[in-house]
């Protein structure tokens, strides 16, 4: 039997008393490890984190906590090679895709270490200026932000076992709030290894970082009113969390990052010969293939003016033909595996549903694999679908196929008095009912700015690609710590990152009403 990955709760490593669940290599099919949280005393573990970890972290200043993040960065750098090996084995990703998860996490932690330093030697934050409450200026109201006296339960999706951990843990720890991480079972190994390395390095005070490896059963029951939950995963699990008594009755604060049918939009008047169309084609192919399309931010819908539908299809398909798929250990392979056979089956099912309403422009489902047995490996080539009737085919706006699949669709350019507008394209983008990100492609700054504002209410991030930033931009799907990550509606309604904005979630805001002499001492 393979190694069992223990949980770390109440300051000690603990094994569950059940049979556990196996983690597999999605290319070779080998069992790699097991996780099991059956019978763990979660209430004890949460209380230890809340009391010991919370008190120790709150005793430190922001600058001191920032230096802890810096020390974590160094530990992770030391063990980077091991993390890449685990990612290849357990996530089936090529090196470039593992980097998004591993180096993306280290970069995010490093960014919060730097941001934290700017907050200095304080233990709480002032929020805005004092406001006069009456005629006499002596009695005023000052808002303060203080770290919540609970734990941050961070529940992650399978596709980012490293970045998902640290993009949540960095702002929580910087805020002075202890973290209990629950990785998705199928890829828990990398999260486990990173947590183990950081704990062994003795950087953090006892109780500041804990991990539950295994099922989520009973986790939410251990929550108390000042705890917070930061969740990333499917809309279905999100709905269960929202209706759990801890959230519904104890008002535990919850942030949800769920699924999303993101779009890429080529603005009107971008004729085939100019730069915007090739930029769109490159980005679509990158988004379809990085991590085999298992990215919550990946482009799922590609909106182009009807006059450019054929040209766009041709440009994207030409690039997809070059994508090699199979065993990530083979240097000729550009795209590795999906995470599991279950995920492969779900992708095939979603693809079939979309194919009922679209035309298949490039079929990757039957593509030959390199160095991988199709009966075992969870690999599938990229597929581009297309429809010239996105109004009538509702499923293309509803189904998130969490794999290398996107749908090209045409929109009608509307001729106004002195301009052509993309109103129809904006309507189509909004049919995703709230997404994490939309990207815009064009060369007219004024039209791009107008379009960005049109989409801002239904998208957490609008990524604008014009020829002048072709070599500079950070990528449609890359989540940068400086920018907001999250989206309204279907995307979960959450907000993460966005620089120091992320700290709001882990702090409580309170208005202190007092004489100016008191407020001056805050
Ligand atoms: P999932 O099945 O919803 O699982 C997410 C996490 O929730 C896992 O750790 C899972 O543990 C845990 N969980 C399951 N049932 C739970 C419950 N009743 N209470 C509390 N936690 C529970 O999602 P997934 O399949 O891992 O991830 C794929 C989905 O995540 C996609 O839809 C994708 O769009 C979305 N996603 C969103 C973002 C974003 O930032 N918006 C990022 C990445 C992924 P087990 O694994 O042990 O079941």
TrEMBL record:
Q: Name one Pfam family in it.
A: Aldedh
Oxidoreductase keyword on record: yes
Q: In the record, which residues are listed under signal peptide? A: none
Q: Please give one Gene Ontology molecular function term for this protein.
A: oxidoreductase activity, acting on the aldehyde or oxo group of donors, NAD or NADP as acceptor
Q: Supply the InterPro entries for this chain.
A: Ald_DH/histidinol_DH (IPR016161), Ald_DH_C (IPR016163), Ald_DH_N (IPR016162), Aldehyde_DH_dom (IPR015590)
Q: Which UniProt keywords apply?
A: Oxidoreductase
Q: Which residues form the Aldehyde dehydrogenase domain?
A: 13-469
* NCBIfam families, alphabetized: PRK11903.1
Query: What name does the UniProt record give this protein?
Result: 3,4-dehydroadipyl-CoA semialdehyde dehydrogenase
């Amino acid at each position: 039997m393979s190694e069992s990955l223990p949980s770390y709760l109440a300051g000690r490593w603990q094994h569950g008393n059940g049979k556990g669940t196996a983690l597999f290599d999605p290319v070779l099919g080998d069992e790699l490890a097991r996780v099991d949280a059956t019978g763990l005393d979660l209430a004890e573990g949460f209380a230890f984190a809340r009391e010991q970890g919370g008190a120790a972290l709150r005793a430190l200043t922001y600058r001191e906590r920032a230096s802890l993040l810096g020390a974590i960065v160094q530990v992770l750098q030391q063990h980077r090679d091991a993390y890449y090996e685990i990612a290849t084995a357990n996530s089936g990703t090529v090196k470039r895709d593992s980097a998004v998860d591993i180096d993306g996490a280290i970069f995010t932690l490093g960014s919060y270490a730097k941001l934290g330093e700017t907050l200095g030697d304080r233990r709480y934050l002032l929020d805005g200026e004092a406001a006069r409450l009456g005629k006499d200026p002596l009695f005023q109201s000052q808002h303060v932000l203080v770290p919540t006296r609970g734990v941050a339960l961070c529940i992650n999706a399978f596709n980012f076992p490293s970045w998902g951990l640290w993009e949540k843990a960095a702002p929580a720890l910087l805020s002075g709030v202890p973290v209990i991480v629950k990785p998705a079972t199928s890829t828990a190994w990398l999260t486990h290894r990173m947590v183990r390395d950081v704990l062994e390095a003795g950087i953090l005070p006892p109780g500041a970082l804990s991990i539950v490896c295994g099922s989520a059963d009973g986790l939410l029951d251990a929550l108390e009113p000042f705890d917070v939950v930061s969740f990333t995963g499917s809309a279905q699990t999100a709905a269960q969390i929202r209706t759990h008594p801890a959230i519904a009755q104890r008002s535990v604060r919850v942030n949800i990052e769920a699924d999303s049918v993101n779009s890429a939009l080529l603005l009107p008047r971008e004729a085939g010969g100019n730069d915007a169309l090739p930029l769109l084609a490159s980005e679509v192919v990158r988004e379809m293939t990085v991590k085999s399309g298992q990215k919550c931010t990946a482009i799922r819908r590609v909106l182009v003016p009807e006059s450019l539908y054929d040209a766009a299809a041709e440009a994207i398909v030409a690039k997809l033909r070059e994508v090699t798929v199979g065993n990530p250990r083979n240097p000729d392979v550009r795209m590795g595996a999906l995470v599991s056979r279950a995920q492969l089956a779900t992708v095939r099912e979603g693809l079939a549903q979309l194919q009922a309403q679209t035309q298949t422009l490039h079929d990757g489902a039957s593509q030959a694999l390199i160095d991988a047995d199709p009966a075992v490996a969870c690999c599938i080539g990229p597929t581009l679908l297309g429809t010239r009737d996105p109004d009538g085919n509702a499923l293309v706006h509803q189904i998130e196929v969490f794999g290398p699949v996107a749908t090209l669709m045409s929109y009608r350019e509307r001729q106004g008095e002195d301009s052509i507008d993309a109103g129809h394209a904006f309507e189509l983008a909004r049919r995703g009912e709230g997404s994490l990100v939309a990207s815009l492609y064009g060369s007219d700054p004024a039209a791009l700015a107008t379009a960005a504002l049109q989409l801002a209410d239904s998208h957490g991030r609008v990524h604008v690609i014009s020829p002048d930033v072709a070599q500079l931009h950070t990528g449609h799907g890359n989540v940068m710590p400086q920018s907001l990550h999250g989206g309204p509606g279907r995307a979960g309604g959450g907000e993460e990152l966005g620089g120091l904005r992320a700290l709001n979630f882990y702090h409580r805001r309170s208005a202190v009403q007092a004489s100016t002499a008191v407020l001056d001492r805050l």
